[in-house]
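Minutes, project check-in
Item: structure for the 159-residue chain
Input as provided by the requester:
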Amino acid sequence: MPRDTAISTLRVFERATLMSSLTARRERNLFLIKHNAENPCSQRYVDVNIRRFRTQFFAKNSPSVCYLDSSHGNTDIKEEEEEEEEEEEKEEEEEEEEEEEEEEEEEEKEEEQEEEEEEEEEEEVEELTRLYKELLYDHYTIQEHYSCIKPRQCEVWRQ
């Protein structure tokens, strides 16, 4: 298959992906059937270009272009795969960093919640001790009052 035909067929496939995924699958299958009939060694090349198109279009919103060396069957797939691997590694590192940041945020939130709970418990303890002291004070004052009243009542009764 000549270079221009491969490029134009791939562009037809790209347009089909925009229309619908089912149409895209049909176009891809037709493209692979036609392309493999003429050059069965290029299956890997086609898959790489389709994958590259998908990642470029959906990630960067720019259509892919089919790159071929001067000889039809040879491509720079290794370099492209290395670039893709580097990009994937960068993305994975970014995701790991984001996950670590999220974990740190969650830990900070948990620590804040624990501190708030401890403060609330301390306030409750303080309130309970205050109430207990008030009760004790009331108890002793009532005892003193009754101790004073009882003898007087007794005196009143005796009279």
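Outcome recorded: Residues 61-74 have pLDDT under 50 and may be disordered.
No further action items on this chain.
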